[in-house]
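Quick one: sequence plus copper (II) ion SMILES, need structure tokens.
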Amino acid sequence: MKLMNMGLFLHVAGFVVCCGMMLHCAADSKVHYHEFHLTESNFTRLCSTKTMLTVNESFPGPVIRVRKGDTIYVNIHNQGSYGVTIHWHGVKNPRNPWGDGPEYITQCPIPPGTNFTQEVIFTTEEGTLWWHAHSDWTRATVHGAIVVLPALGTTYPFPQPDAEEIIVLASWYKHDVMELMTETLSRGGTANLSDAFTINGQPGDLYPCSKETTYRLMVDYGKTYLLRIVNAAQNQDFFFMIAEHNVTVVGGDASYFKPLTTPYIMITPGETMDVLVTADQPLGEYYIVATPYFDGGADDYDHSTATAIFEYRGNYTHPSTPSFPYHIPAYNDTVVASLFTNQIRSLASPEHPVDVPLDVTTRMYLVVTMNMLPCPNDSCAGPDGYRIAAGLNNKTFENPKVDILQAYYWNLSGFYEPNFPDQPLHYFNFTSDDLLSNNVTVSDPGTRVKVLNYNETVEIVFQGTDVMNSAENHPIHLHGYKFYVVGRGQGIFNNVTDPKNYNLYDPPELNTIPIPKDGWATIRFKASNPGVWFMHCHFDRHMSWGMDTAFIVKSGGTAETSMKGPPAYMPPCDLESFLGSKDSMLLREDR
Ligand SMILES: [Cu+2]
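Reply:
Sure thing.
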């Protein structure tokens, strides 16, 4: 088996940092090397033990720490029993989609018993990001935080906190997640619910057999802590609160925000949030809670709540039960959830300016739907024996057999079609509650991508719908970019009146945005990162059901504006896929 090629290391030796348009990084940027060993090992939660895949036997996985502008090389050794890929969530990785990781988009899975080194290039990101498996539903157990500190010689745009803490929120399943997925997708019905949520790997006091291991954040009175919160849950938005303490949100998705002080945050899968909390309450123990925000109607959700403890050091009588937040929003309070999301603003300061595209050259209107697809003999577990699907503009994305990036780079035909539509074929009352007829519910499966010229300025309006009575928030995530969220609202987007209220002054710059239930959101970005970049709902079940597409961003005609070439070794795609293809360049064992 061919392993790492030395050419890559030679390449590293001659590495020249490319800082894009940002200053102050070239001189101090560093290159770091990491080894990720993916292995199956035993973990016990909720009184039951299971074997699960993790990186370096930790859950959550190891933390990657870099400074702004650094580059990392991560050698991923797959010692598990199925193919896996790793994605660097929120890292733009300019010109280098080869290191991005979503399976069948930028690479084929890393086969068991082999390794693959990814180059991950940090540029403008500063704050908290995360990495996770991007193959099937493996990310349930394969994920960890990325801390991007300010470049040397620069500081946070807020007072230096006394200490920092990473808080990773996740889902826990008693059963093997890959088996659950296989079963869900073969039945074609709804997905199994998680059995618990976790904070830094622990469910907390409200679950059986969990009290002894509840995560404790030890604090000193008077000190301020920076919490780097990651929502790594499979399918769940959370309200996150600390009893009797407000938090001040100062950043998210590795961007800075205007400080926003609030008793709660709503965080959606894929998002990160950096919040400050000052230990200014009477010495005691206070619950940290991550409790579901669920605004859907069609499927159920895990009603449980994860807790950790915000515990003051010092001499005092410890309570038998920590103080619990008494104003948790109702689980389905869309108003409160949107109120929070809509208040987030970019810092928009001289040190952290915004650069919102003003002249839009490509406009897309993407209707976000749950769908269904016919099933042989109507034998599936969805409505009328159909299988549950999902889509954008009624197109249900299907993974190709060879990843889109290699198919594009090597000019292999037959793996994708460059005809993803900019608009829905039919306009209808998207938020009506009677959208059950087959002409709106049945989608059109395929592997369709949208091709963009270099530096096009793109505006996408995402329109939430109630097709199949399945309106709910959808966290849409775009790889390879950060985008500005210039507008967000309820109901059907009005292309005359709503743009008048766009925020072009200080919109947040994010990589994941919750599209409100029965509402819309508008993003803008400049297509200045050539490559192949996935865009999908960050609820894993919706991603697997096809609420996805990919962008091919063409190169700009010069070396600096062109996609890099592939690394010397990429994980091989399934041999069968190449039958009939004369081009064997992908099977580059001999190169
Ligand atoms: Cu979704």
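The CA atoms of residues 245 and 281 lie 7 Å apart. Residues 177-187 form the longest helix (11 residues).
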